[in-house]
Every structure is written in structure tokens, then in C-alpha cells.
Amino acid sequence: MSFLAAIAVLAVLILVHELGHFIAARSQGIHVNRFSLGFGPIIWKHQGSETEYAIRAFPLGGFVGFPDDDPDSDIPADDPNLLRNRPILDRAIVISAGVIANLIFAYLLLVLQFGIVGVPEGFKFEPGVIVQPAEETSIAYQAGLREGDVILGVNDTVIPASKESLNVLKEAIQKSPNQQVQLQVQRQNQQFDLKLTPSADKDGKGVIGIRLLSPNGQPIYRHSQNIPEILGIAANRYQQLFLNIVQGFGQLITRFGETAGQVAGPVKIVKIGADIAQKNAGDLFTFAALISINLAIINILPLPALDGGQLAFLFIEGVRGKPLPTRIQDGVMRTGLVLLLGLGIFLIVKEALFQ
Question: Is the pTM of this model over 0.85?
Fold first, then answer.
């Protein structure tokens, strides 16, 4: 069920994105002949007065189709309500509407979380840190650490029940490069010791290949009927998430060699979502908001086959006073689509076979 919940979250976010394009077009009277959630074989469809609505076999994607280049369309090529015949501003609104929809939806998700789950009011700490080995080849995994394990101590250092527990564990590992350390570990109701030797990173600090998830414990919530308070807290949380994601993309560009391995594909995203749904379904709101903001930022990048790439073509058209030749635009878009599909398939295979 948690796996299906994660799939449903991604499908909803894609639906929101495509609805943004669809509503922006239809509200301006622009012809839309296809609205599809997913790719691949059609498993359900309905033909409306103008638009075919379809659900396809693979829900990790979707598209809004326009009759502009449809050879079977009976709409005249000079029809002013074809997308390509509209002014640049009208087309820009349609193209950017998916990104705007994802950004707005992310904020609404946070409002729902704080309104339904409650407003965070602290954390009930317990001793230790919940960790997750980065990958099966990591020192931590090879030594026996598994997802959800709680590290209670390192050598003679006890991990306290406080918000400083993450720093205590990190400092204890970092100061022990190439030196064997003993971890006191709790797994469910069992406690045991593990020995491992941190390697040294480029700065000479010890690393064992773990992702620090959180201090051990549970968040404390209070239910609020104060709508302005909920809206304000959601806005602050939204700003924090947005800035963190932008910084993450910045690090991916400036430190690609170090951060490329952290790029997640659909399989890994679904797994993360399933884990969250299993542990605390309420956190799915934040997970969905994170993915929604990520979708928006990725789509606005000026890359072929993305919304940002189409906006780049519109910008060039505005500067030149006429669009680039169709063959150039089609060639760039096809190349970009092949590259994106190739990257997606690579990530799916990598995560399905090696995670």
C-alpha cells in the first residue's frame, strides 16, 4: 500500500502539471486535442467535444497535445486559436503554466499538512541517530548497518537525546579517519556492536557512507484553528524548501562530480515515498511538495524537450521578430527528448538492478 501511495503522489503531481498547461490553453480559447496522464498503451480514454482524455499504462509522465502539427486535424492551418498562431505572450502563459501549477500546488500541500496533521511544536527526542547507508558498497553497509538502524554511541561517546545528536555522531566519525571505531547500534528491540574503519575524504575527515536521516524520536504537533498562522508557517516552510532545492541544483552544476551520484530517478523516488508513507503518512505532504517544486525547477530549465526549452525558443523568436525554422526546433526537441528518455531509462535500470 505504501508503494501505491508513492506512485499515486507522483501521478497527482504530473496531473497537476499537465492541468496547468491544459487550463491555461482552454481558458484562452486555444485548441487542445489530447490530454494524457502517463505514457505507453492507453488503458482508458474518453473523447470529449474536442479533446481526447486518456490514462496510459505508465503513470510517470503525461502530456497535453495540440492539433497544430496533427496531420489528421481538420482545423485550418490559419485558425487564430491554434497555439502556434497566438501571440508570444499567450504561448508563454500556456508553456509556463505547468511550472506555476506545481509551485502553487506545493504550497497548498504544506497548508494541508499543517492544517490536517498539525503545526510542528518541537520534537520528543530519544537517544541516538537514525541513519541509512548510502549504498551497498559503502563502509557502513558492508559493516552491517541497515536502513532504520539507530546508532546509540561511537566508542565511548554516547549519542544524546537532543537536537545535537547529529553533530555528535558526525564529529565522532570525522575525527577518526583510518581508525577503527565501534558503534553501538539498536535495531528494533535488539542492541549490538559493529566495528568499522572510516576512510578519509579529500579534507582528511572520516566518512563511512551514511545519510543522517534525523535525530531519534518523534515530532510533536498541535492542531491549530488559526488559518493565518497556518498560512504563514506554510509560507516559511515553502521558502525554506524552495531555497534548499535551488541550492541543491546549484551544487549539482558547480560540483557535478561529487553530487551526480545523488540524482534520483523514478524508482528511487517511489522507494523514498513508500518508506515515508510506511513510517508516517502525514509526511507525504512534505514529500509531495518537495517533488512538486523539483518538477517545476527542472521543467523551467532552458533544456530541449522541457518547458524551459520551449520558452527559450519563444525568447529567440521575440528577439529575432520571427521564429527559428521549424526543422531546427524539431531537431533540437527530438535530440533533447532522446537524451532525457535515455537518462530516465538509465536511472530506472540502475536503481532497479543495483539498489
Answer: no
Cell numbers that stand for 190 in this block: 535488539
Interval 87-105 mean pLDDT: 95
Which residues are part of the catalytic machinery? 18
| 3-state DSSP of the chain | CHHHHHHHHHHHHHHHHHHHHHHHHHCCCCCCCEEEEEEEEEEEEEECCCCEEEEEEEEEEEEEECHHHCCCCCCCCCCCCCHHHCCHHHHHHHHHHHHHHHHHHHHHHHHHHHHHCCEEEEEEEEEEEEEEECCCCCHHHHHCCCCCCEEEEECCEECCCCCCHHHHHHHHHHCCCCCCEEEEEEECCEEEEEEECCEECCCCCEECCEEEEEEEEEEEEECCCCHHHHHHHHHHHHHHHHHHHHHHHHHHHHCHHHHHHHCCCHHHHHHHHHHHHHHCHHHHHHHHHHHHHHHHHHHHCCCCCCHHHHHHHHHHHHHHCCCCCHHHHHHHHHHHHHHHHHHHHHHHHHHHHHC
Percent residues over pLDDT 70 in the chain: 82
Q: Which CATH architecture has domain 122-222?
A: Roll (2.30)
Average pLDDT, the chain: 82
Sequence ranges of the domains in the chain: 1-118+223-300, 122-222
